Amino acid sequence: MAVKISRREAREHLLGLIYETEFRADEEKEIIFETSSESREIPKDKFIKDTYFAICEKIEDIDALIAKHSVGWKTERLSRVSRAVLRLAVYELAFAENIPSRVTINEAIELTKKYDDEKARAFVNGILNAVKDEVGEKK
């Protein structure tokens, strides 16, 4: 049965899934999702599931946008946490509908504050604002 959770909680679960996927790159995304959901007791939430698989499907496009706007940094050199936050936020900015850009960027900064190095905040914010400018701001 589906459980109603806040978008902020859903994004935290998504961050964990995206982060974990890097360590399990050779595994099927469905298996990663199922085992991670079970072991970490991720609620059965449509937003989490749909967004996770959409990010996996569009990962090359997402990473290309990150790389384009992370001047002087290769995507592989970013911390895994920053990379996971950026992948989630860039997906929302470029591909998700009905999520205002300012909400996406604010939520990404909050995740960065909570889970990444203090210095990462400005970097993540800069990349996300550049992506927003390229793809167009959503209100």
Percent range for β-strand residues: under 5%
The whole-angstrom Rg is: 14 Å
Kindly state the percentage of residues in helix. 55-70%
| Low-pLDDT residue spans | none
Euclidean distance between termini CA atoms: 32 Å
Number of helices: 7
H/E series: HHHHHHH
Tell me about the largest β-sheet.
Answer: none
Question: Can you tell me the overall shape?
Answer: globular
Structural class: mainly alpha
Q: Could you tell me the mean pLDDT?
A: 92
CATH superfamily: NusB-like
CATH architecture group name: Orthogonal Bundle
- The CATH class: Mainly Alpha
Using DSSP, what is the number of strands? 0
The number of distinct structural domains comes to 1
CATH fold assignment: N-utilizing Substance Protein B Homolog, Chain A
Can you give me a brief rundown of this structure?
With 139 residues, the chain is mainly alpha-helical. The chain has helices at residues 7-23, 29-39, 46-57, 59-69, 80-94, 101-115, 120-135.
Structure, described:
- It is a single chain.
- The protein is an all-alpha fold.
- It has one domain (7-135): N-utilizing Substance Protein B Homolog, Chain A, CATH 1.10.940.
- It is 70% helix and 0% strand.
- The protein contains seven helices and no strands.
- Helix 1 (7-23) crosses helix 5 and helix 5 (80-94) runs parallel beside helix 7 (120-135).
- The radius of gyration is 14 Å and the shape is globular.
- The mean pLDDT is 92.
